[in-house]
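User: Structure please.
Assistant: Input sequence and predicted structure:
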Amino acid sequence: MSERKRLRRMMLFSRAGNESRYMKISLPRPNQVLADKIMTLLELLRLLPPRQPRRVFSPLKTTWTFPLANRAKSTLGRKASVQEPKPSPAKSTPPSRTTVEKIPVSRVIPAGSAPASSAARDHPIYATVDAVVDFAEQFTRLEAENAQLRKTVKSSADQVLEANMLATDAKKVNALLKEEVSKLKQQMKDEQDARRAAAVAIDKREGVLRESIKDLLEAANITVTRRHQLRVDSTSDAMSLAAESNVQVLGLLQKTRGRGCTR
C-alpha cells in the first residue's frame, strides 16, 4: 500500500450516532507549524456535514433503520421475492433479539483499494485529504533535502576548519623560516665584518713593515733598484724588497768586519 493510500485511510473518520471521531495523523517528524496546520484542517473537516450511512443499528431499538432510498429498494426487492417461488432452504436457527450484529467497517468506510463512486469522490473531504497528503509528502521531501544540506554544510565547515588549521601551521613554519633566514643573514654580516677587520689589520702590519724597511735602507744609505716599483697594496713586493735589503745589510756587515780585522 502506498504512502498516499495509507495516509488517506488514516484521515477517514468513523462515526457512531451523530458524533464524529477523527484519527490522529502521524507524520514523519512534524514540527509545530505543520502540526498547527494539520489541526486546523482537521477542525475544518469536523465542521463538514457527515454522510448518512447505508445501515445504522440503533442500540435503543431492536429493528434496523434504513434511509428512504434504500427502504424503497428493499420494499421492491421484498415484493419480487414474494412473487418468485422460494426453494426450500436449510433450516437455521434465527439469532436472538438480544444479539447485536457488528457492522463491518467496509460498509461504513470503503477500503482504500475499493474504487469509490464519482459522487463520493466529489465530496470536499477527499480533496482536503489529498491536499494534506500532498503537503505531508512535500514536507517529508523538504525535510530530507534539508538534512542533506545540513550534512553538506557540516562537511564544508569541517573542510574549512581543516584548511584554517593548515594555514595556521603554514604561517608558523613561515615565521620560523624567516627567523632562521634573519639569523643566517646576521651571521654572514658578522663574518664579512670579521674578514674586513682582518684585511685591515694585515694591511696595517704590511704598511708598518714597509715603513721599517724604508727607514732601514735610508739609514744604511743603500740604494734600492726596485724602490720605484714598490706598491702599497703588494705583499710580494714588500717581501722581495725585504729579502733584497737583507742581502745588502749582510754584505755591509761583512765589509765592516773586514775593515776592523785589517786595522
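Residues 124-220 form the longest helix (97 residues).
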